[in-house]
Amino acid sequence: MITIAIVTVSDRSSRGERDDLSGPEIREWAGALGYQVVSQTIIPDEPESIKARLIELSDADCDLIFTSGGTGFAPRDFTPEATRAVIEREAPGIAEAMRAKSLAITPHAMLSRAVSGIRKQSIIINLPGSPKAVRENLEFIEKALPHAVKLLKGKVADCAEEPEVRAQN
């Protein structure tokens, strides 16, 4: 069972001035794939708060930690910087794939500063703040995520073959 944590980064949503629509979008996506959401929080666009939450979740061995929001050019968009401060290894292909696929939908995709990486046994992925963009980006990467989690947990013996194929031989 893959475990998921959702962290919505939004000043307005954290103050109750705006509903969080992206967090529930991630939760719905995770449920449809049979993943277990173990945490869902809303925090302000404060680098120290973002870092602390990401550390807490990765220390708890959550498989996938998704942030939503704070990845653009706005003065208080600090999510990528906070993520870089806590990850031990970058996983640039995830963010690159999301940007590349998103560019086919909107030129605004080139404004994304989202990053992804690994801390301990957790994969941290920055997503946009828009529910529509969240859903699109999750669909772009969802097929690679189970394999990524297995690799990180040391559950893949040979990347050239899936475990089901080896079992049949």
Task: Write a structural description.
The protein has a single domain, classed as MoaB/Mog-like domain (Molybdenum Cofactor Biosythetic Enzyme, Chain A, 3-Layer(aba) Sandwich), CATH 3.40.980. It has a six-stranded mixed sheet with strand order 2-1-3-6-5-4, sandwiched between helices. 43% of the residues lie in helices and 19% in strands. The chain is globular. α2 (22-32) packs parallel to α6 and α3 packs across α4. The chain has helices at 11-14, 22-32, 47-59, 79-86, 92-103, 131-141, 145-152, 163-168, and strands spanning 3-9, 36-43, 64-68, 89-90, 116-119, 122-127. The protein contains eight helices and six strands; from the N terminus they run βααβαβαβαββααα. It is of the alpha/beta class and 169 residues long.
Total domain units: 1
CATH superfamily: MoaB/Mog-like domain
> Radius of gyration from the CA trace?
16 Å
Write the H/E string, N to C.
EHHEHEHEHEEHHH
Structure summary, number of beta strands: 6
Poorly predicted segments: 163-169
Strand count, sense and closure of the main sheet? 6 strands, mixed
> Averaging pLDDT over every residue, what do you get?
94
Give the strand content.
15-25%
Helical content class: 40-55%
Estimate the global geometry from the Cα principal axes: globular
Number of helices: 8
In CATH terms, what is the architecture? Answer: 3-Layer(aba) Sandwich
CATH topology descriptor:
Molybdenum Cofactor Biosythetic Enzyme, Chain A
Give the termini separation.
Answer: 25 Å
Q: List the quaternary state of the chains.
A: single chain
Sheet with the most strands: spatial strand order? 2-1-3-6-5-4
Structure classification: alpha/beta
